[in-house]
Amino acid sequence: MSLSIPTLRKVILISFYWYYFLTCPDGKDELIMKRKDIKDENVDMKKKINFNITIKDHTSILEMICLTGQKDRNSLVLMHIHNFGLLRSREQFCQELICMANSGRAYFQLLNFVLTDKRNIQYIDSPDLYIKLAFLGPIHLSSLENVVRDKDERFFNKIIEVLKILKCCEESHELYVELYQKHLKKVPEKDNYLNFQKNIKTLFKQLRMEDTDKKVMSTETAIVQLKRYSRMRYKEKKIDNHHLNDVAYTIICQYPHFKNTFINILIKEKDYDEVERWQCLEIEDNQFPKYYPFEDKENDCIYLENNDYLSLPKHITVKQCSTNEEILDVIESMKKANKEGFTIVGFDCEWSSFNGSENVSLIQVSFNDICYLVDACYGDKEMISEFLSTLFECENLIKLGKSPKGDIDVLLKTFGTIKSLYNPTYTLCLTDVVQIFNAANTDKHNNDKNFIGNFELYVPKWKEYFNQCNIPKQEDEGKEELKEEEIIDMVDEDEIYSDVIPTSESLPGEEKEIEEKVNIRKQKIKKPKKSEKEIFTQLIDSAGLSKLCQMILNKELEKVEQCSVWDRRPLRLSQIMYHYTQLAKVTLKESNKKRHPGKRNDKKSKEEGMTDINGFIVPYKEHIKIMNKIFHQSGDKGMFLVKFYVETFKHLMATVTKFLAELIKYTENGDIHHDMFSFIFSNRNFKVFINDVKLIEKYFLVSSINISAIEKIVQGNKLINHDDVIEMFSRLKRCTVDQRYWNHLFEELFKIAPTNDHYSKFLINFKTFTEEMSQDTFKKTPLPYGKCCGVLFYTLKKRYIEQSIDDYALNDVAYAVISQHSGLRKKLLIELKKYKDFKALKLWNKLYVCQNNFPNYFPLPENKNESLYVNKDYLELPRKINVVFCVTGNDISDAIKAINNANKKGFQVVGFDCEWSSIQVPQYVSIIQISLNNTCYLIDATFGCKNSIQKLLETLFNCDNLMITGLQPVNDLKALILEYNNVEALYTPKHVFCLTALIIAINDAKSIKSEEIDNDPNIAGNFDFIFPNWRESIKNTKNDKNEKKEDESFESYESQDNCSVKSSDNHDNCSVKSMGNQSDKNDETKKSSSKKEVEVLTEKKKFEQFIRNKGLSKLSKLFFDKEMDKSEQSSVWDRRPLRISQIRYAALDAEVSCMIFQKLEEICNMLEINIQKIARELPSNQVCKPLLLTLFKQS
Known about the structure:
1195 residues, Nucleotidyltransferase, domain 5, six-stranded mixed β-sheet, 53 helices, 16 strands, disordered N terminus, 3'-5' exonuclease domain-containing protein, nucleic acid binding, RNaseH-like_sf, 3'-5' exonuclease activity, 3'-5'_exonuclease_dom
């Protein structure tokens, strides 16, 4: 732990007294009396003690500090030197320290002080001091460079010999011990040699310019930076939260325990939104992160105009260059500009100050109205070296910047092997150019003392910048004098301080002599009045780039981002999106005007595969290049950003076939990002048109595979030859054992040579694919953190805003997600406090949540007043219905017997439904509901006997006389197949149909009203006589869409948690959503064309559309004048025991199908329709078997 300054002062005073006590025993009594004064922090040593102390004595005190101090030895040494003014006799003090080191009493803190301070170089007479320093600690490369620059060639050669000796010592322990004893007069310890080797390796790495690795900041620097930027955000208001979060995340990744420190700062500043964010934020296990999990700055763009600061001109194009192709384009542009002649090039570099190495992160080069931002942090080093060589070798490119020497010095740390950096051509400082411009052709004004130069003609008010640049105003000649301290410093130090440093009470004669010399100096030294030109020179030299902009362009340059985290990737969302859209517009505008001058022919542009954007035409190919660039530079957010990009330019999906054709053409490009294939195969609109097996083969070669997407393409597209797919799998299997064949296949498809990295990724992806194909079932895995947040926020909205669920359902969901991610507990408490639900807040403050990803027991209060058969305002479960919960094998066997008995009796309707929890992957069925003969069986599919459940499913779906019905039962069959894919009856059930299909069939059937229906086209069918008012509600059918499982509804709430968009797990391939629903496609195509066909729809079609848009709850409203209570639809179905409201919902969800069928039967009897015949003739819902697995096995 570092000591405070008062504590350091006390330690120094104590050491001072200690030395005096040892050397002056006669003054013991006087010292004992005055040691009490040490407690006072303001003790003045000079006034309390009357004695003399020499430089040699001071070195002895410093030696005691080095021997007795611990972590603060260096601070104590520097403070002692400062407090006693030892640097006023620098030469004698350095010589005394060097003599002490040569005598064998060498200490790292003292020797490091002598060798690293530039002002001490003239007193260093022997390179052997560096050998001693190397034995004690690390040698700073800068100290060696400073010595070599100031000394002669002979000293330089000796330094080289010293380095050779140190290198030999690193390799030979015996030589190390010998030299250690020779120079330090003692035997080294065991650990010293390891530290010595480490320090020498680091030194030679630096000498060879190989030490480019990032280094962690010191703890002291980290905490200072964290507090400094917090002050800049909340006190000074100089930066925003986006800037502060980047800095804080960078520091906390290096020191995770600083997270609590930063949260305490935020609490102190009452920024509770940021407190909430940081409490739930998971810190990446990487000291130097590339990607940052924060939302992007809204309404921000690179051309945003600002009244207070200089803005980027809109005619300037900004290009980010990170890939080799992009950097090559910059090199070619520079060579072209160099051939054309004199060209001004703006040059600057940015680097992050949050790592020890401070390597360059970004190189900015601007010429010919284009600003190139070269990524020096993550770009290819060889390509960037070529870029820098070209830049600084071109003689016609005039490089301008503010202090470019500093940027070049930083570049040398990483690119020290580039010769042109040591002698760059025509690299000028902006202030030097201003001085040259100011002095040019001013001979005729030599007589005018007040004329500063040409600059005054353009900026006549330059004097107003005095105060802004902190330059002292000129005073009268007689009044301007140096301060007394400055005069003392200018007096010859050797004349004042010889071997003795006097105190205020001792040596009165010498003190008078000093005062006389100071007075003489005061009389002689008077500051002469500066001329206008000298003042101008001082102003220009001290002004930064921002102030120069203010003087010349009348606006300052905003420097808020100057010290931001330049190593972060990607840019913020709004910046990236605007940047790429602007890139698309700006770069293509002129070329398209040349291609298509005058008025555009929209038909021609569409035929050529072009699209219209804000007044100019952009080809699909250019859009695809931008999308590929987004994937390359955006990391994990790439897919989200590309989808956002496609949504922004909606016309891209207007002609799906042409857009897909251009995408397929672009896949032949070797630079294509592997996520581009994921985008193609995950897009629902593309799947119908993909019929090229080679495209699928490319997908396998470079990307991880979405099995469900490939399954749908192979199974749904008749143009794909299954034999070609089998051959493709054969080639891929051969590639796993023959890399040469894989290289040949890769070159054939992508026209470039692959790398070993490509092949290793392929092996991993294909191994994962084969494992998933061979697995019958998958282990349940918890949802990612972001999706759990979405579930929690969506449930909170339903509870407190929509008020569609109660506290018990909310508690179940909250307990389930907190069991998977404990960090969500704090978020829940904050939200409960926000909604002022103090009862729930009290419960969750006390509740202990067991860390189990899939809990089955929920220690939560239940509603004791809940009834199974009573539910006001909603459809109630008939009291005659008996609910049986089946868990054990015997219970399920009883259900199987009841099914067989019902099948033997003849025609029987069975209500069927399944429930599953959305808080797991894959979403296995939790409850199977079967309702027949006034009994509802709830089969526990989570904890029940699996073998018995398989028998039950085989029996149920193989019965000839059981009509199994529900709303969209095909989705339930697909959900069951996830876990019971070996049950053949699930793929081809005998009689499974949807209720809406039955209603439509009854409406079209022949009845006693058929003649009236045939004669009157305004009659929709048989149901027009039963529900004559159905047309009144058809206007609201848009709001009455089919009520699906609400798995996707919470996804939109992930953004509320400020979580980064993460890629889904591999098991997502097996989820119900990934399996999809073929009927959804039909619905979408109908919706897309409904606007055109609405005028020609017949009454029957309108009625069919009306019925298909009805969910089960709305159907119950139609038949029974009461809706179903759907509050438990998305509850936690894996909890045991189920709550009474869950049991009631599950039983009613299956029984309502039977109730509606009974109502339909009564209607059919009225209309003399045979409903049993219609039900038997309805086509049974079937699920296609996985064709991909069959083809894979055949290969």
